[in-house]
Specification:
Helix content is about 55%, strand content about 5%. The chain has about 140 residues and is mostly helical. It folds into two domains: about 10-90, no CATH class; about 105-143, no CATH class. A hairpin with a 2-residue loop joins strand 1 and strand 2 (about 20).
């Protein structure tokens, strides 16, 4: 990934807010982008990909969510806003969401793209990386 010396990585997609994976990462990307600290490689997919899946799951508009995040408040406060503005998933729905997201790329329609990303990143020999969450953590230096 090409990065300027000032750019920062968002938190791991594994980080949870009120038990929900990925939300903290999306919020981090929005904040870092607003501060000019998000790497260029992330910009084209803001609000798309996993971000798009997350806002769809929560039933909120990405631009409205970004605006709410930039108003301030903790991730928990913003997620509470999402639950009021959009959908408030049950504990079972959060469990299914978490398991789906954690396993994206493992024996599914995204496996081919995950393998391509591993090769592009110079990690072609890594058989221990089987999901996109693991790839993200590897690519950003957490693994």
């Amino acid at each position: 990934m090409s990065r300027s010396p000032l750019s920062q990585y968002p938190c791991s997609p594994h980080q949870k807010v009120r038990g929900l994976v990925y939300f903290a990462r999306m919020a981090d990307k929005i904040r870092l982008n607003a501060q000019g600290l998000l790497g260029e490689d992330y910009l084209a997919n803001l609000g798309k990909g996993f971000d798009g899946s997350c806002v769809s799951f929560l039933g909120v508009d990405y631009e409205k969510l970004a605006g709410r995040i930039l108003e301030g408040g903790s991730d928990e406060e913003v997620l509470d806003w999402c639950y009021k503005e959009g959908a408030c998933p049950s504990e079972s729905q959060v469990f299914v969401w978490n398991e789906y997201m954690r396993k994206c790329g493992w024996n599914d329609a995204l496996t081919k793209r995950l393998n391509e990303r591993l090769l592009e990143g110079g990690f072609g020999g890594r058989t221990d990386i089987q999901t996109f969450f693991d790839y993200i953590d590897l690519d950003e230096g957490r693994l």
